[in-house]
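Risk register update: the risk of archive-format incompatibility is retired. Evidence:
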Amino acid sequence: MKLQLKFMVLLVAFFMAGFGLLLIQRNFEIQRTQQLLNSELSQRQKFFENTVNLKGSALKQLSNDYSFWDEMVNYVKTTNPDFAKNNLDTSLGTYNVDTYAVYRPDGSIVGENSSKEMKDLRLNRLSPDFFKRLSSNKEAHFYQKTSFGILEVRARDIVPSSDAEHKTKPQGFWVIGRLLQKDYINNISNLSQTNTSLEGSDMNPEATAVGDTIAFSTQLKDWDGSSVGMLKSTAKIPLINDLKKQYGKQIQLLGGLFVLIASFTLLAIYFYVLKPIKQISSTIDHQDTTYIDSLRHKKSEFGELAQTVQEFFDQKVVLADAEFRRNELDKLNKEKSSFLAVAAHELNGPVNNVKMFSEYLDFLIKSKKDDQEAIDKQVHRIEHQTVKINMLLNDLRAASTGQSEIVFNIRNFDFDAFFSEEIEEAGFGYKHKLNFTGSTGQTINSDPDRLGQVVSNLIRNAVKYSPDADHVDIRSKFQDGQIIIEIQDYGLGISEEDQKHIFERFFRSSAVTGAFPGLGLGLNISKRIVEGLGGKVWVQSTPGQGSTFLASIPLDSSSIVNPKKPAEETNTLNPEKTNK
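Archived output:
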C-alpha cells in the first residue's frame, strides 16, 4: 500500500474514531434517557396501582365491616326487610357503592338492591364454583361486565361478630359493587397524573416507554380469570424532551470542535506530508522527474528523498536495458525447453512404432518369405509411421524458423477405415487387447495425420494407466452431425479435482507422479488438435474404476481450418505462442 494511501486510511480511521466516539456518547445519552423513562414508567405504574387501591379502600372496608356481624347472620336467616333498608341500603350512599347482594351458604339470593342513581343495576349471578372458592379464600376482589358498565366487586363470607378472623364456617356471603364511571376514571387520572381510559377486553396488556411518553395498562379480570376490560394509562414526561435538547446541544458542540480540529490537522498533513508524497509518487508513476523539480531544492526530509529519486532515475536507464536483455534470454530459454519437451514427446511414439514394425518385417522376411501380403502390410505400416515422423519433423523445422503453430492438411477420407488402421497399429506393441466396436459410415473432410496423433495419445494413455487390466474398449459412432470416439480403460481413474486440470500442459496427477514416467503433454496436444479441427475432447472418470476419454469431430473442418495458415489456439510445439 502506498504511503499516501496509508495516510488517507489513517485520516479516515481518525475521523471514524471521532464520529464513533460521538455516536457512543449519543448512544450513552439515549440509553440514559431511556433508563430515566423506564424508571418513570415503573414509578408511575406503582403509583397508579396505589391510587386504584386507595380509591377502592372504601369498598374493601365496607365488605369487611359488614361481614362479621351477628345482625347480618340473622338477616341471612330471617331476610328481615327492615334490616336491609336501615343498614344495607343506607351503606350504598355512605360508602359510595352502587349495588349489593347477600347470599345464603348454598348460593341462593337473600336480598339485593342498588343506589337511587342505578336502581336497575344488579350484580351478575355467581356460580356455585365461585361460592365454593369464596368459602375457602374468605374474600374476593374482581370485576364484572354489565349493561351499565364495568363493576368493581368485593365479596366476603359472613360470620358472627365473635369471629373477626373468619375462621368459622360461612353463614352467608356479602357481595358489593361499584361502577367504574367517568368521574371515577377522571379522578384516578388526576391522582396518578396520567391520561387513563377504560378499554375493551380484547386488548393485550402492555407497558411501553417510547420517546417522551410512557404507557401501561391494568387488566380487569372476573372471578374466573377472564378479562372484562382494561385501564389504559399514558403520560408525557416533559423532562425527557428537555434532556434530549440538552444532549443534542452537547453533541453539536463536541462535533463542531472535532471537525474544526480535524480540518486543521488535515490541512497540515496535506501540505507538509501528502503533497510531497504525491509529487514523488507521480514522478515514479509517470517516470517523469519534472514533478519533483521544486521539491528537490527544499531543505527537508522530502527534499532529500526527491533528490534520491532523481539519482535513481538517472541510473534506471542503464539498468532497464540490462533487465530487458536478461528477460529476453530467459524467454528464449523457456521457449527452447518447451519446444524440446513437446518434440521429444511427439516423436517418441512414431519412432518406437517404426522400430517395432521394422523388427516384425525382418521376422517376416526371414521366416515367411512367401507371405507377401503380410510383408506389404508391414511395409505400409512403416510408411505410415514415416509420414507421421516427417510431419513432426516439418513441425520442428517450422518451429526453428519461428512458425511453431500446428499446420493442418485437410482432405477427404473414410473415417472407419482410418480409425480401424490406427487402432490396429496402436495395439501392435501392447499386451492389452484393444476391443473396438461401432461404425460411423462417414467420409469426413479433416486431417487424418493429426487425428492419428490424437488416437495414438489417447490409446497410449489408456494402456499406460491401467497396468492391471488386460483390455481397453474403443467405440465410435455418428451422433448429432458429428463423429464421437470413446476410449475407455479400467485403470486408476481420475479424481474430480484433477479432471479440471487434466488437459493443461505439463499437468500430472499426484496419484501417478513418480509411479508412471511422463511429461504431461499428450492430453494437452490432443485437446489442441481436436479443438483446432472444430471438435471437443473431454473425460469421464471414477477413481479406482477407470476413465473414458471422448472426442467429437465435425464431418467438415475445412470451414474452420485454413490448411494454408496456422490454426488459431493450436500450438503443439510451443503452446505459449498460440494465436489469440
